[in-house]
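Final report, Chapter 2: Outcomes

The project's central promise was a pipeline that accepts a single protein chain and returns its three-dimensional structure in a standardized token representation, suitable for archiving and comparison. That pipeline is now operational. To close this chapter, we reproduce one record exactly as it appears in the project archive, with the input sequence first and the structure output second.
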Amino acid sequence: MAENDIMLMAHLMRRAGFSASYEELEQRTAKGYEATVEELLHPEEQPDLEMDVMNRYMHGWRDLNGLMANQGYWTYRMVNSSRQLEEKICLFWHGIFCVGDSKCMRARQILLELNNFRTHGMGKFDNLLMYLSTDPAMLYYLDNQLSHKEAVNENWGRELLELFSMGVGMDGEANYTEDDVKACAQAFTGWTIANAIPRYPYGSYANRFLYNKFDHIDDDKTFQGETGNFNGQDIINIICKQPATARFVARHLYNFFVADEPQVPAWQHTPPRDPELIKALEDEYFSSGYEIRAMLRVLFNSDSFKNARFAKVKNPCEVVASTLRLVGDFTTPKPRFYDPALQIRYMGQDLLNPPTVEGWHTGKEWIDSGTLVERVNFTAGEMGRIDSPGIRAIIDRLAARGRTISAEALLDGCLEILGGYELMDETRDLFLSQALKTSELATDSEEFANQVSQLLQLIVATQEYQFA
């Protein structure tokens, strides 16, 4: 089993999941890269998480009404679910189709939207937009329940075009006009929310979508050059056949899974970083009938993806979940079980509660002086837990290489097991001269475990570890 194959698998699992232990990487490499891609693309074939024990201990997870309970529950899923791409695609769409608890104040309602992303997030884009258009959390977040035939509210119509499907523009041209926004908003009049069932005496009930035909503008509308008595479904059908929508979806997939792009508002006047891959994704969007799974298959099997190692700044979920998967000690209830979810928040990504409908700015904007300290403190603290199963496994694997190991081999071994990270020459020399002062280390000595742990702590505190 070639080391290069394992490192390629490590790259795939960092992007299509939340990393993997070295043992898992070896198992997946034995299956083969393309077979692993197919397995990831079909999460429904893997068992879902068994939650009975967790629900027994984590009482807030039973009803999932509160924000903190939902954040803790999702963090647990990211770390422990065998359906890694399912959780990753859920995070992908959550960062685009943003709904915030700060306005909705119904975290369980947002959870229902996230479950739709899990179930339909790799399906047809037009179906996904339809689910979104009838989602009570989204309709409330963007005020469509306040949009009436006599007083149209354009919030949902505008954001559907600007942030959820087409984008403002591409190749220096605008993708839609103000008249398109007005027509879009008119087509969605009457798409609202039914009155909620009172919570007493049986508890809280989810809101439901309601179409009120008496509050719908039943007239001809002109949208994207087409005229007719359009409703919301018609608008989505027109949106999804636009080249701008193919470009929008392709660039978002590239930015999330391959390499950091400029922020979305710059896309109208900034060409894609990799035009060839974007074109291939656009072509697949149309040839597959708008299927996201088909686009991901093209993306993961492309040379551009395979060669884009460490070309993305990790988002906070990736920092926390990948570290916890490596440590292997977040699988059962214990005190301070919500701390990982709080760590994600402290690093700048408040799950289920993005700062605006625009979502989080990604790439280098994840990092500032405060969030970097949170990243380093969290990862270094976890790597210092010598008795955790994952760190113990790393120590034992390195110790099995011989009774003694050179300082350079130990450093290379740690970098390899963490996923093939490479340090700048200056950092590497500093580690060898200061952190590992002896040229040979005895693997059966009492201090070996501490030496490995301290070296892991130093590695995860580097600039290089902030990239996926």
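Archive annotation: Residues 1-41 form one domain.
This record, like all others produced under the grant, will remain available to the consortium after the project formally closes.
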